[in-house]
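Example for tutorial group B:
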């Protein structure tokens, strides 16, 4: 039996507040999700009972912290379907750092002139900028798979681009703007048919649907804890064990070494080789609690709930003549987000008006400027849902969108947000 959002909401006291004189409607989950008591209570337990550094102390507290931190790696490996446990799960700060770990550990060391990196037009800057910089520094060439008019990847174009010169395919699993769910298993087959690696950006998929890295046969998967009901400052990189064994670290220091002389060093075993210095210990332990929390709801139940809310919102937005929506049309499964604009109203004004009504959305380019250039818009308004959101909250959003069309002078750019880069 899937717990209803109403019972889930009891785990998120933050949602019970009012903003201005309206109950909070938090619809910015694509940026970061809220954290249930089952996760934030980990912090009190850790800092009152067993806070200590890991792998360094020969004492009880350090032992308990080390065991919990190590087991958290095993738990997150299990969460994404990795049978290799902690040997295939590196904790990082976030998806961005996970992607950069592959860029430095593999891209910078293995790519050169003649090699090609295939990515897509819908990538977040964490992928877009990282791989363009790898190309600039190695002489490799970046190619971008086109996005169709309906916001899907053009797979025929992908098949054209992925060839014998392709060294790595770097693709988002789910678009944080379009809501599109990309066929990364198919793209992995294309990459492997040409002996290329595939790195998947799972920032918006790991929190919202079942992800099985071995069934998909991806080589690397990046994700962030704060997008999956976990804390900020912790993320993960799944990597096939043999690939991580072959990769060199790019952060050096304590913890990641085995033996050090004045002139050289040998590396620690996986995953510690890639976790230099004191890690985010409690954050990692809390992330395992977040994985437990989401699994208790059920990742397929979350996928269904996300899609249902997105369809509910999209159908209603599509029905409004003054509203333009982005991504696949209603009826086609998507993740729990809808990006849109209301004719003549700047996204920042819309976001400001919604905020006045207690509704938190995001407006801007959502760290996908090339995608917005392709959409020929300066930005978009994005409502993104999670396990605790309800249809009644979508109704609040739509009522406010309708009110904006009447209340806001057209083309008035409010100065409240314009000086902020969103
Ligand atoms: C597809 C995708 N890929 C990478 C990232 C980066 O996640 P970090 O935890 O910040 O490293 C994000 C984060 N997107 C947020 C912040 S820009 C959004 O509002 O859409 C993402 O959506």
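The residue assignment follows.
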């Amino acid at each position: 039996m899937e717990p209803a959002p109403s019972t889930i909401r009891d785990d998120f006291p933050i949602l019970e507040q009012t903003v201005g004189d309206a109950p909070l409607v938090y619809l910015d989950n694509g940026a970061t999700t809220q954290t249930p008591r089952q996760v934030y209570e980990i912090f009190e337990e850790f800092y009152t009972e067993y806070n200590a550094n890991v792998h360094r102390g020969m004492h009880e507290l350090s032992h308990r912290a080390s065991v919990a931190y190590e087991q958290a790696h095993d738990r997150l490996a299990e969460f994404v379907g990795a049978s290799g446990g902690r040997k295939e799960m590196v904790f990082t700060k976030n998806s961005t750092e996970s992607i950069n770990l592959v860029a430095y550990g593999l891209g910078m060391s293995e790519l050169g002139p003649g090699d090609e990196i295939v990515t897509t037009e819908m990538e977040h800057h964490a992928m877009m900028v990282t791989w363009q910089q790898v190309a600039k520094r190695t002489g490799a060439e970046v190619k971008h798979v086109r996005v169709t008019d309906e916001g899907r990847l053009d797979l025929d174009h992908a098949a054209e681009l992925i060839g014998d010169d392709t060294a790595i395919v770097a693709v988002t699993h789910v678009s944080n703007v379009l809501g599109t769910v990309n066929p990364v298993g198919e793209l992995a087959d294309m990459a492997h048919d040409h002996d290329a690696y595939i790195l998947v950006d799972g920032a918006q998929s790991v929190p919202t649907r079942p992800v099985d890295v071995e069934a998909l046969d991806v080589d690397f998967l990046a994700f962030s804890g704060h997008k999956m009901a976990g804390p900020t400052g912790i993320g993960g990189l799944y990597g096939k064990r043999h690939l991580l064994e072959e990769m060199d670290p790019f952060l050096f220091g304590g913890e990641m070494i085995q033996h050090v002389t004045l002139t050289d060093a040998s590396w620690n075993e996986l995953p510690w080789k890639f976790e230099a210095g004191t890690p985010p210990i409690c954050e990692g332990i809390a992330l395992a609690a977040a994985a437990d929390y989401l699994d208790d709801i059920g990742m397929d139940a979350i996928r269904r709930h996300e899609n249902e809310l997105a369809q509910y919102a999209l159908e209603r937005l599509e029905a409004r003549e003054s509203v333009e929506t982005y991504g696949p049309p209603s009826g086609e499964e998507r993740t729990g987000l809808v990006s849109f604009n209301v004719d003549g109203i700047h996204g920042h004004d819309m976001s400001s008006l919604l905020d006045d009504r207690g509704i938190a959305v995001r407006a801007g380019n959502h760290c996908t400027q090339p995608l917005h250039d392709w959409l020929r818009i300066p930005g978009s308004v994005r409502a993104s849902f999670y396990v605790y959101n309800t249809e009644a909250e979508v109704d609040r959003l739509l009522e406010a969108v309708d009110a904006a069309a009447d209340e806001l002078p057209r083309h008035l750019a409010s100065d409240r947000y314009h000086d902020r880069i969103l």
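Residues 30-31, 94-96, 124, 126, 172, 176, 201, 203-204, 224, 362, 366-367 surround C6P (CB under 6 Å). Compare this with the pattern of hydrophobic and polar residues in the output above.
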